[in-house]
């Protein structure tokens, strides 16, 4: 099994920046099986939505709403995935979850609150 431990997040003013980190631990899978590492978010009363993904080949995808403002990256030696969030907007307020897809399994982090408010 794999455990995902998130850190970062918090309260920031509109236009500010925050960074999220997610560290994988446990056993059963090598990093070359970490097919896709992703960030999702869920705002109150809304469905969970994909924010950004990065494949083991380094290919990234972004939701239209965050493209150009957020950057996803991964470090396979540290078994971590990151989300740098710049120019944050109140609409970015949500609980953010990291996600790891390996063959036949999906793992989720515990979630971390990001609040953008003046």
Mean pLDDT: 95
The helical percent reads: under 10%
Strand percentage: over 45%
CA radius of gyration is 14 Å
Q: Specify the overall morphology.
A: globular
Number of helices: 0
Task: Give the end-to-end Cα distance, rounded to a whole number of Å.
Answer: 40 Å
Summary tags:
118 residues; mainly beta; 7-stranded mixed β-sheet; 4-stranded antiparallel β-sheet; 11 strands; 56% strand; globular
In words, what does this structure look like?
With 118 residues, this protein is mainly beta. The protein has strands spanning 2-8, 10-12, 18-26, 36-42, 49-55, 60-62, 70-75, 80-85, 94-102, 105-108, 112-116. Strands 2, 4, 5, 6, 9, 10 and 11 form a 7-stranded mixed beta sheet that branches. A 4-stranded antiparallel beta sheet has the order 1-3-8-7, with no helix packed on it. β4 (36-42) and β5 (49-55) form a beta hairpin. The protein starts with a strand and ends with a strand. 31% of the residues are buried.
In short:
The protein has strands spanning about 1-10, 10, 20-25, 35-40, 50-55, 60, 70-75, 80-85, 95-100, 105-110, 110-115. By secondary structure, it is mainly beta.
How are the secondary structure elements laid out?
Layout: E1 2-8, E2 10-12, E3 18-26, E4 36-42, E5 49-55, E6 60-62, E7 70-75, E8 80-85, E9 94-102, E10 105-108, E11 112-116
Parallel strand pairs: 2-11
Antiparallel strand pairs: 1-3, 3-8, 4-5, 4-9, 5-6, 7-8, 9-10, 9-11
């Amino acid at each position: 099994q794999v455990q995902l431990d998130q850190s970062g997040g918090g309260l920031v003013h509109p236009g500010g920046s925050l960074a999220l980190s997610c560290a994988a631990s446990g056993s059963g899978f090598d990093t070359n099986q970490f097919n896709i590492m992703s960030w999702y978010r869920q705002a109150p009363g809304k469905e969970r939505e994909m924010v950004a993904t990065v494949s083991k080949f380094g290919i990234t995808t972004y939701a239209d709403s965050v493209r150009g403002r957020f950057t996803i990256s991964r470090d396979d030696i540290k078994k971590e995935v990151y989300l740098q969030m710049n120019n944050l907007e109140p609409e970015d307020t949500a609980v953010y979850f990291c996600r790891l897809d390996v063959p036949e399994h999906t793992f989720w982090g515990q979630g971390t609150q990001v609040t953008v408010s003046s």
